[in-house]
Amino acid sequence: MARRDFSRPVAITGIGILTSLGEGRDENWRRLTAGQSGIKRIQRFPIDNLRTNFAGTIDFVAPESQDTPQITLEAARRVAREALVQSGLGRPGDFPGPLFLAGPPIEHEWPQRQGFAQRAHSTAYAAMAAATQLSNEAHERFLNGFIADRIADEFGTRGAPATISTACASGATVIQLGVEAIRRGDATAVLALGADASVQPEAIIRFSLLSALSTANEDPAKAAKPFSKNRDGFVMAEGAAAFVLEDEDAAKARGAKVLGYVLGCGEAADNFHRTRSSPDGAPIIRCMRNALADAGLGPEAIDYVNAHGTGTPENDKMETMGLQALFGERLASIPVSSNKSMIGHTLTAAGLIEAGFAMLTLRDQLLPPTINYREPDPAIPLDVVPNQARPARVRRILSNSFGFGGQNTSLVLGLDAA
Amino acid sequence: MERDVWITGRGLISALGEGGDAHWSALQDPARWRGAVDEKSFAPFPVHPIGALDLDRFIPKKGDQRAMGPLMHYAVAATGLALQEADLAGDAAALARTDLVVAGPGGERDIAVDEQILAGIDQAPNRGAFLNERLLNDLRPTLFLAQLPNLIAGNISIVHGVTGSSRTFMGEEIAGIDAARDAFARIRSGQSEVALVGGVFNASRWDMMLLFRPSGLLLDGPWQPLWRRSRAGMALGSLGAALVLEAPEHARARGRRPIARLSAVLGDRSRRTPGAASAAAERQGSALEPQLLRGHVGLLSGACGSGPITAEERDLLARWGQSHGGIPVRGTAGAWGHAVEASFLGNLALAITCLERGRLFPPLDPDEPLEAPWRDQALKQVLVTGWGHHRGEGLALVESP
Lengths: 418, 401
Prior knowledge:
The complex is a heterodimer of chains A (418) and B (401). Chain A is α/β, with parallel strands linked by helices and 418 residues long. Chain A is built from 13 helices and 15 strands.
């Protein structure tokens, strides 16, 4: 398949990762390949009456802070720093390229609302709006653009920072936005960042009300069980990851060590239903095919799939169906594992965190497992790398991110540019 | 490869009505657009609300209507109008290739539930347990779906069948600039052939008053003209705006002509020290200056109305006018309110109507020297500014086809 000149590979020169397993790409990779779980009982707020009372939180990042924007910002800051140090690009406070951020929607949370009501001596919005006075700093903290703005300010990225929300595909979408900007020649380097720390009572309850979460409260570390017959929902989690993406020639010209490449990106939207995917799997199949076409590769070039693998009954069934359509009989010999079995579903950050793990998979030629795999589902005949990491020869990886609300993105990642 | 970017469809819904003609007509008569300001519903904060929409016309299925709040209704309606004008509505094959790019905030909260929970929480023996129990019992499961920003795009895909790809930008005014820039850059470079780009904002929400009022940004008395308000100068306005952007070859193959050309979309972020936003906009203006046709340029400003930043923009636009032999300006937030994420796209859509009429509409503020009446020459180019209330500076150039 001929490669179009505007779909050339883009180099990755820096990676930062932070999840419920810990801080830093090496610490995360060590624990992930040891099959450890970061999922635990929620400590951040009272869990009385919750249907699901566990999550993959990152309380170690900002133990004094209770709110989503502050914890998310601190996580974003740390992974950006790690990725920039590895890349050696730019100087502190001066990054020579734009920022694309995948982040959670931000709004006032219950502690803020309660504070407004107390000071207004009223619980009516009209009275709260009239009585509340906040500084500019307190105002900006609950804007949707807050995290990108702070990161742009601290790291000195160029231009208007973008904040993207394609739900659970957001992390992959920001990689795609960065790749496109570099391929167009708009930038020679991009900071692609995903961060999400939205484990709050209302957020977890909203997902509960959609019956999307696992309710296996008795043993949180065993709750996330993608591809298993007894899977019962995803596990809400937090985390962050950053990529420094660079034009390949520019990276080589400055003597940077290239860690690997984004070879292709694909998208396809699903218009079947707000929470369910098309029963024929057509959009996710089209999404994966678009990524391969963008990479100028066929399905035979893929050695391993880093699955979306949320552990909901629906996703894992549909993703399997999509993979069967894409790979045919060869699927039996392609390992497919889900990082979410260990770190949970990191929502808007998931696509970036999992792409980060895919790059470490390539580096160490070691497949991370799908843990908690005890009851195989006969309808899901996948090699899920059950419970233990496994050495393998891997040159190219397909990484899937399928968003709630119909936004799907797939990436093809490779060790070499070809 | 750099291609022209054609605009082949537009959708516009605001307090002034639906579509380009309705807006043009309302803007001819100060009594009409002034009469669309609602100074009662959210008093003391004036808002510019969208009137009742004929939902059945835009969203045929009742189930779809119920799955959304007003914010998403406006987005679906505006994008529907744009697809109709571009003759893409119902063309399943073309819509499956159409890239969707959206800018918007989260959807409406259930304010009544919030107020009830707040009313009970102080007396609760265990506040956390009370909050969890009440949220579990009182939140409607589907409400979440009407709140997630990415479901704006999700609902547009579902109702209109646009499924090429889907991207939602967040982040107040910058989101609208980013959305326009993303679609524009992809088509110009050959990364996309046809894109539907939209922005949406619903002003008639107490949670928006609570977001913008506490830092002293909202106009909290009788409505006044835009350019000389105090810091408390923003009157929010509801707006749904959408454009179909298309590569010329793609449009020609469908037998379509452009209604306008989008020639540039620039975005930046200054730190907002005094003069910093002007400096960023000056760089943008310098980049476009060689393309400007002296005497044929008008400007639609996205100035939000909050005193200091709007005054800074006013001074810059006055300098631009002086150095270009006059660039009449219209601060559209004076007529339809400040629409945050939708502001930039709203002005892009309105610019097309002005180009079609060959002139700007009459001044919204006749006492403001910037808002000079349009002259005799034909309007051929419209600059659109988008300065965020807090961050972000955008500039675009829309031209006659």
